[in-house]
Amino acid sequence: MFAPDFFSHPLGTTGFEAGKHAWRTLISHFPDYRLVAEDILVDADRVAVRSAVAGIPVPDDGVQPMLIEIFRVADGRFVEAWGLGQGLPLEVLSADS
C-alpha cells in the first residue's frame, strides 16, 4: 500500500519503517487500540480520513480521541501523509523514541 519513498509529515520520515514502529509501540501499550473511519473523502490524488480512536483512555477533559489524516496517492500507493489528532497518547510515542 505504501510507496518505498513514502513520506510521513507527522513523523518527519521517509519510508514506512517509522510508521510500523509507531503502530507497534501504540499496540504494545494499548492492545485494543483501533481506528474507526467515520468519514473518507477522495479528491483527485488526495484521500482524507477522519477516524474515531478506540481502545485508549479518554483524556480527563472528556474529548473523544480522534485522528484526521490526509494521504497523497500516486500509482495506487500512498506516497505522502499528514495527520492531526486530539486526545491521543503521544507521550507514549515520544517516550519510546
UniProtKB/TrEMBL annotation:
Lineage: Bacteria, Bacillati, Actinomycetota, Actinomycetes, Pseudonocardiales
InterPro entries, per database record: NTF2-like_dom_sf, SnoaL-like
Domain of life: Bacteria
Matches recorded under Pfam families: SnoaL_2 (PF12680)
Name of the featured protein: Nuclear transport factor 2 family protein
Domain SnoaL-like: start-end pairs: 2-80
